[in-house]
Amino acid sequence: MKKLYVILAVCLVFISCDDKAIVVQDSAGRLNDILVVIGNNDWDGPLGDTIRKEFARPLDGIVREEPMFTLNHVKPAAFTGMLKKSRNYLIIKQSDSSGVSIKKDLYANPQLGIVVRGTDKVDIAKVISDNADDMIAVFNKGEVKRKQYLMDKVALNTDRITDRFGIELIVPRAYHFATYNGEIDNDFFWLRRSIKEGTMDLMIYEVERNRIKRSDSTVLDIVKVRDSIGAIKILTDGGPFQTEPAFSPFLNESQIDGKFAYETKGTWEVKNMFMAGPFVNYAIYNKEKDNWLIIEGYVSAPASAQRNYLFEIESILKSVHFLETKKK
């Protein structure tokens, strides 16, 4: 029994870079919150403006501006106790050298910290601007992983999707399989979640490779595909479900489960009705089938903030895992 206590003690203790023992405890904090550790004067000045410009930048695809992350400020002397257990933190330090370092699970678990160093305020601001995209990607990846972990605890049975498309994905039980006029379509899956302000929806289907070409008109190809499917498969009380023509979608090249994908973010609408909202669409090239797997999520909640809803959808879509095709 004494040996067991020793083993447990070793498992619970991590050694920091300054050789002080730190007991790793559960982290705290809401998803997409970052605690910024910086002096009050710097936070209220140009350096703070640079941090807000980069880390609280507006999300793509949302007409009403919402920040990518919620930033909470604390001065360095107050970064103790419970605040040190924050799941995400950004520390700003003046130093003899410039750079960015990542600290994982240093004071709590899971936890992600980023330390930005510079020789003076101007240098620190430059380091932040030069590395902002990479730092945002690190925080976002950690938050998506955490969200997927939480969703997996209350996951919906998606065997029918696995059987049809050869993929696994994490969808919370708050969603249910929807039908169009009561009919089940095994080539098109529509999942819905009711929320206080409206609904959150997912669509999964496949299209031939030649429907989406890599060219200057790729985004137009994707819009044509989603509009042709949405007009037929998504039931509305008005006109067709389509891409809002007044706002050009954002298109990026990405990867899902190691496979090439186009990421499209934009606004949907029901034509001739005052119904609209944001969507996230991934067109994933499946080399084994030589086609595109389309996975999309969209939100209908016009009277509420939509960032966290879109983040849940993004986490679901990024959880897609392709199963190996059995050789005959």
From TrEMBL:
Residues 1-21 form the signal peptide. It comes from Nonlabens xylanidelens. This is Uncharacterized protein DUF4837. It comes from the Bacteria. Keywords: Signal. The keyword Signal applies.
